[in-house]
Amino acid sequence: MKHKKTKITLLEVANHAGVSKTTASVALSGSDYVSEETRNKVIASAMELGYVYNRAAASLRLNSSSTVGLIIPDLNNSFYTALLTGVNKELNKFKKTILLGSTFESLEVQERLISSMLEHRVCGIILFAVLGSSDELIKKIKKIGIPVVLVNRSYPGCDYIGIDDMLAGQLATEHLIKKGHNRIAYLGGDSYLTSWYKRREGYESILKKFRIEVDESLIIESSPTQEAGYNSVEDLFKLEKMPTAIFCFNDVISIGAMMKLEEKGIIPGQDISIVGVDDIPEASIIKPKLTTVSSFPFLRGIQAANILNSRIKGEGGEPQTIIIEPQLIVRDSCRWRYEK
Amino acid sequence: MKHKKTKITLLEVANHAGVSKTTASVALSGSDYVSEETRNKVIASAMELGYVYNRAAASLRLNSSSTVGLIIPDLNNSFYTALLTGVNKELNKFKKTILLGSTFESLEVQERLISSMLEHRVCGIILFAVLGSSDELIKKIKKIGIPVVLVNRSYPGCDYIGIDDMLAGQLATEHLIKKGHNRIAYLGGDSYLTSWYKRREGYESILKKFRIEVDESLIIESSPTQEAGYNSVEDLFKLEKMPTAIFCFNDVISIGAMMKLEEKGIIPGQDISIVGVDDIPEASIIKPKLTTVSSFPFLRGIQAANILNSRIKGEGGEPQTIIIEPQLIVRDSCRWRYEK
DNA sequence: GTGAAAGCGCTAACAT
DNA sequence: ATGTTAGCGCTTTCAC
User: Fold this and answer.
1) pTM value?
2) Which of A2, A51, A81, A104 to mutate to test the interface with B (most CBs of B within 10 A)?
3) Domain enclosing residue A141, as ranges
């Protein structure tokens, strides 16, 4: 265990097997330009010598690696973890490894992360861009020539796996209205987010459909985190008249909001109705169980990985835009409300 | 955007700046063996040409990369995500990137993952070994000569960041006993896990201390997942006499158990008391809020990253064993129980 | 079916 | 302070 064993190279394997480097390489790569017999010989030698394939060398030669960069804003939001799980699961099948980066909502970190991945010669990037990302960033990656799959925003020339955010807003709002609410807040999230804007459009369109006036004071922005959700409820209390229902930008905000409401003695699902978006695992753990609009993070992760993989293999065609239809999941956080 | 731009290499940057390749390399690496003036010239050229450092080439040359392998069993367990967050946060500081792998509790996947990371020439590995891992595995990595930090088990020659599992078991059990319980189950987790065994030791030691007989039928094994926790509660119902309290192997099991209990009309924190281990974020979201013994996953992630980093830098010394003292976090899932 | 040889982009002696 | 040079281990024509 003391002496540094000098690393075994392909050449040594070849020598040991009594073939050339080329043959050894070909044999190990599984191509069938070698006889079965030779291949077995080579494999046996590799095993015996404890050969470890050097991907750095291969990457250099090939000018591309077998790693995929995945960049998400926040490891503590289960939405992203679910996405990550999907990506991971699918990429495994293609024998690709994930180079992971969490930006923690910082533009600067995101910039660094992307540079680093480019330096690593990742063969593709799945990017959940942080709030306020410039187009420059994406342009920079595209210029290098590696495929990019976007999850939360579209950009010309990139594949995009999104949900129909407007519909998400509509589903949530309509559910609330049908439960008898007409004073519905839209809580949390940032107007810089395309998704925020679209969900708001959905929200307003339904209000209009039911001839309910849009009340700007019921639209409250925040960052898209649980903590922000918790804090932003304060703004609701400042209103002369509390809403009877809240459509939250996403589930983590819903959870934060529910906690604050409860602290203030307002019981969610009883005194006030709540709908979130995403359907993260916590949504069915919290009490009352959260009614939410699923945005299928796991599924999107799988799809993102698949599209990226086909791009990496050079399968061309126009950039794809996949818009998944969100789905209302009714649980226990909304109650009937009769006219006061 | 059409023509493939041929990649800029260090040589081209050097030429453009009117210096040699070496000088360019040294200048960019931030060493101060070049004049400030030269460095600036080189940096300017690199920027202008859009140079992207090729880590594959550097890795090959250096025979080591700037990536660290992190292997965890389950991305869907927040315990691991918290650990990951800590590792990620700390590694960022050292400009290292995470090559992530989730084994999903499969030995075979773990094997593949480790091989892959070795091929990538990661400069170190943080390993949360899956249940049933053989020593061979770790031996294999050590033979390559890269440092390994273990999180859930110790192994000669490796650093280890664990918690005092026996104490965790004691803390939980004692809390329950002091609340008046004397029929306490130990639910979930697998006896193959060192941590399971140690927590059981703690559990039994406290029972003995209070002269309560150990009842084997109250010790129920399962895999360490939420779903398993949910299912294993069934076994409790089969007993002639239900326990009045449950010490769960970890928080996800507690959560699963609580869900099942509730479905059966037994209200946790009221009809039955529950204590978990880990203190994952969900513990304070679920209702009743879960009383648990914190195992400080985030902190352990940070420490693991730190130790690994110092090993990578070649800082020697004996393998460290850091045992963090778990801490009882009292919330709402345990109630006083008076003698019937 | 197999081998010889070139070269990917970088770093680190060593020389100047 | 800067340049010359020799590989790191692999894949891939192109011969045979």
Assistant:
1) 0.92
2) A81
3) 65-163+297-324
